[in-house]
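Entry 14. Structure prediction run on the chain below.
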Amino acid sequence: MNIPAHLILYSHDTFGLGHIRRNRKIARALVDSFPALRASIITGSGLSGEYASHPRIDYIEIDQVDKLPDGQYCAATPGKSFAEAIADRKRTILQFVQSNPADIFIADKEPLGLHGELMDSLKHLKDAGTTLVLGLRDVLDEAGTVRREWERKGIFGSIDGLYDHIWIYGTEEFYNPLAGIGLPQSVLDRCSYTGYLYQSHPEFEKVPVAGLPENYILVTAGGGGDGDFLMNAVLNAYESDTGVPCPAVLLLGPYTDRESERAIRARARKVGDIRVIGFNSEPEALIRHARAVIGMCGYNTFSEVITRNKRVLFVPRQAPRMEQLIRAERAKELNLCEAVRAKDAMDPDGFARNITALIQSAGKPEAARTLDSRGLERICEKVAAILELQNRAEFEVERAG
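Output returned:
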């Protein structure tokens, strides 16, 4: 389809890499499918420059904010209050959507934006005839927690009639993130499942980093902001059992605390059979070449590992959200993975046995595990239908005039 169009994607990006990576996947799939489409990603991650550029994908960076362990937020800029950061973000977003008309706007996870920062922009976009889409990952949190949070944020009083579509980036068979939170049927009627977001690229087939050991087990903590426990648990296991039969590659992530990274690297050098990587913008390539994976069960890691049919051991975090634990335990029920709780991974001997069992199982043949990973393909189909409808409506208006 060669209809000229502009797509805006928004992600608040207060913690980890999940939001920006999800929106980047969607943008890349769409611009590759539609030669006349351009995409703009509004992001608060500060890491847009780490990703490969694309001539029709632009990043609009807004003030960064940090999510604290207790779930509260603060401005990342020294000397700036959180209220000031939100005001600046709100102003930047509104100015951008006013000066760059969009055909489609996709908000990731936060219906009204962080602390309501999207409200004015959503009103402007709706008045301008933009198709508004809310994109949700497969699991948000426990239903009661989501309900209380959305009530506190005023989402229940605003969402009815706001979004034209709600796309859930998963499958109903796996999990329904909106079940039991009390949304009206008029909102639920706008929901559809896309399947998981994964699309293989030729670069994923290449050796991702020079000098990696052969037949390694990949340990990944996503953005790394809260992944120290997992890296240290693996180091504890390798120190406790020197017979673990596979080298490990630790992917720390860009948000790993510098002091923690130094300590992890120092320990890894003493173990000897462990390689440490600080950040890799294309972890799919590392997953592709790994014998097996240990991860925390964030959305992107989950969909990439399971789609690749890799043996995986998940050690999910349980704070500030239960999202990862819910996803890991549901996946284990479906025989898609093995999972242990973080407290159990702190037992070096027991975790070493878990790792050894994972490695041994990776060498055995098994039937392919199924996970619907056609999400990007379906999003392209949905966008094509939206643009076609918009184009037809514009033609009818012109003909009537």
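The mean pLDDT is 89.
Filed with the rest of this week's runs.
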